[in-house]
Amino acid sequence: MIRIVTRTRLAQLAAELDAARARTREVQEQADAAYGAHIRETFVLTARAEDAEKDADIARMCARMLRLTLEDTVAELDEARAELADVKKRLRALSETPTDASMMLLIHYGEPHSVHPDREAAYAYAATLGVPLSGWGPPDERPAAEVRWRCLPFIYDADRDHFRSVTAPATEPPGGA
Fold first, then answer.
1. Which whole-number Å values give the CA distances from 35 to 27, 28, 31, 43, in the listed order?
2. Listed residue (107, 176, 98, 163) closest to 139, CA to CA
3. pLDDT of residue 174
4. Rounded to 5 degrees, what are φ and ψ at 12?
5. How far, in whole angstroms, is CA 16 from its chain's centroid?
6. Which residues in the chain land under pLDDT 70?
């Protein structure tokens, strides 16, 4: 079959072809622009993800270091508490009057007054001097010269052939704890 195409029809087909090519170019440009935007967004998101991974790694490393530091600090604190408990125990033991205290020294305003075989005898003697029996209490931190009457236990030290005081001086625990 032979078909005869007129000039007008040929011009119309050429115009449709040009329009189709123009539309193809326009759609291709839009597709290229969308693809370029997609690639740029992919690069941005990839960079953000890598930065987030680096930040997470740094945070994990810092958390590990803090955990180790905390464990070391807790161990040091436990050691310090144990040492403080030991110091308190020794101070308490030193400040208690031992049961084998052999003599009591009665002190009047910081000066030795008399020696007695036990605490009751020292109190009884002080009562003869006008000191009430109910006025005795544990030794405090005041200097001996400021206290009217004080009763101190002493032990005979046979190795050195002398008497020694059994009261411990008041001391602060190490580190001011």
1. 12, 10, 6, 12
2. 107
3. 56
4. -70, -45
5. 83
6. 94-101, 156-158, 161-164, 166-177
Alpha-carbon span 96 to 90, nearest angstrom: 10
Q: What is the pTM of this model?
A: 0.40
Rounded to whole angstroms, how far apart are CA atoms 151 and 15?
A: 128
Q: How many CB atoms lie within 10 A of CB 126?
A: 23
Query: Is residue 150 packed enough to be buried (19+ CB in 10 Å), middle (13-18) or exposed (0-12)?
Result: buried
| pLDDT score of 78 | 96
What gap in Å lies between CA 164 and CA 116, rounded to an integer?
14
Question: Both tokens of residue 174?
Answer: 């190490």
Decide if 167 contacts 104 (C-beta within 8 A).
Answer: no
Residue range 130-143, pLDDT digits in tens: 888 777 777 777 88
Run of H or E including 104: strand 103-108
Task: Find, among 128, 116, 127, the residue nearest to 154 by Cα.
Answer: 116
Question: 106, 122 in Cβ contact below 8 A?
Answer: yes
